């Protein structure tokens, strides 16, 4: 049976071969596709967590619409970009497209144009589908995104980098597990951004743990939390703060 050339399939297909990629992370691959498809006009670039979601679950309807408004079909920036992929790599992509039944007569020279068309067709398909929110409101067991971070993606993505997102086979209900690492600043890891992220969320954390808003006004929440930590609950204040941030 032929596979469907949806967004996640296409990202997996080109992921190891993009010419200006610093590594093989799918986050960067999605970012590069958006960047070159829009001829560097897509702004602002989605946050890291959003790019990873696009890679695992497919690009969103709103992002597809935005891209279609920026794509110049007469002079495809994507096709020009894919033309920079090495000849041997284009051959491997052609073999994969044949094997999966996407295009039985594709060969190396046709790959750049075909890839550009497949991505554009996917954007058109996603942009034209009905809004899922209007079709059905998911139950808690169906919704993969019930749990959200208590800080903005923009702030969070400057400190952490998602390295994997997958489902647990042993759990029957829909589920999602995400793994993150601290972003390095050269080497070794720098904890400055992590400290700033935690510090900037101390006030919200204090309020969430029962400190009244009026008590926080005019006082440093950090002082309140020092007393809270000295009370022995919790023993690991930094760990609880990080759990709160996630």
Describe the protein:
- This protein has 246 residues and is mainly α.
- Helices cover 50% and strands 5% of the residues.
- It has 14 helices and two strands.
- It has helices at 7-14, 26-37, 48-57, 61-70, 77-82, 87-99, 111-128, 132-135, 153-156, 192-200, 202-208, 213-216, 221-230, 237-245, and strands at residues 160-166, 177-182.
- The chain is elongated and about 70 Å long.
How do you describe this structure in short?
This protein has 246 residues and is mostly helical.
The structure class reads: mainly alpha
Number of helices: 14
Which residues form runs of ≥5 with pLDDT under 50?
133-146
**Given the C-alpha coordinates, what overall shape results?**
elongated
* Percent of sequence in beta strands: 5-15%
Distance between the termini: 40 Å
Radius of gyration over all CA atoms, rounded: 22 Å
Please trace the helix and strand order, writing H or E for each element: HHHHHHHHHEEHHHHH
| Major beta sheet summary | 2 strands, antiparallel
Strand arrangement, largest sheet?
1-2
Question: Portion of residues in helices?
Answer: 40-55%
Q: How many strands?
A: 2
Mean pLDDT: 77
């Amino acid at each position: 049976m032929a596979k469907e050339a949806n967004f996640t399939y296409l990202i997996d297909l080109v992921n190891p071969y993009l010419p200006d990629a610093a590594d093989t992370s799918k986050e960067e691959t999605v970012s590069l596709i958006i960047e070159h498809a829009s001829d560097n006009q897509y702004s602002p670039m989605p946050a890291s967590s959003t790019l990873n979601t696009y890679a695992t679950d497919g690009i969103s309807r709103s992002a597809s619409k935005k891209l279609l408004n920026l794509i110049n079909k007469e002079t495809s920036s994507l096709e020009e970009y894919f033309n920079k992929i090495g000849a041997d790599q284009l051959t491997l992509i052609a073999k994969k497209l044949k094997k999966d039944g996407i295009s039985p007569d594709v060969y190396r020279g046709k790959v750049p144009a075909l890839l550009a068309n497949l991505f554009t067709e996917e954007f058109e398909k996603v942009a034209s589908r009905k809004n899922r929110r209007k079709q059905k409101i998911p139950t808690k067991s169906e919704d993969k995104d019930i749990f959200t971070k208590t800080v903005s993606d923009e702030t969070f993505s400057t400190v952490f980098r998602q390295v994997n997102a997958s489902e647990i086979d042993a759990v029957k209900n829909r589920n999602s597990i995400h793994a993150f690492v601290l972003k390095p600043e050269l080497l070794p890891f720098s904890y400055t951004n992590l400290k700033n992220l935690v510090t900037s969320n101390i006030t919200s954390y204090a309020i969430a743990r029962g400190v009244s808003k009026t008590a926080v006004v005019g006082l440093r929440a950090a002082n309140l939390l020092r007393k809270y930590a000295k009370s022995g609950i919790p023993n690991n204040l930094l760990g609880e703060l990080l759990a709160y941030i996630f």
